[in-house]
Amino acid sequence: MKKNKHSKIYKAIGKNLKRRRLELDLTQEKLADKIPKMDRSKISDMENGKEDFVFSKLLDLCDALDLTVLDALKEEEDQKG
């Protein structure tokens, strides 16, 4: 993903997705197996803020991780307070 004005939020989303995946003790591969048309490399790109993804993919990941979209969108400052 090219550096753009949204890169900060993509990185925050990725960090939240990865944190939740690790809490559930899931590998990227196991998580990808739970989501149709999703592979490990796409999850890796999303977790690293490199993937400019469509909203439905975020919804699919949130469903698989039992994570609310609002929690996925939280930036680090919000999580500290």
From TrEMBL:
Signal peptide residue numbers: none
Which positions fall inside the HTH cro/C1-type domain? 17-72
InterPro entries, alphabetically?
Cro/C1-type_HTH, Lambda_DNA-bd_dom_sf
Q: What CDD domains does the entry give?
A: HTH_XRE
GO MF terms listed in the record are: DNA binding
**Protein's recorded name:** XRE family transcriptional regulator
Organism phylogeny: Bacteria, Pseudomonadati, Bacteroidota, Sphingobacteriia, Sphingobacteriales
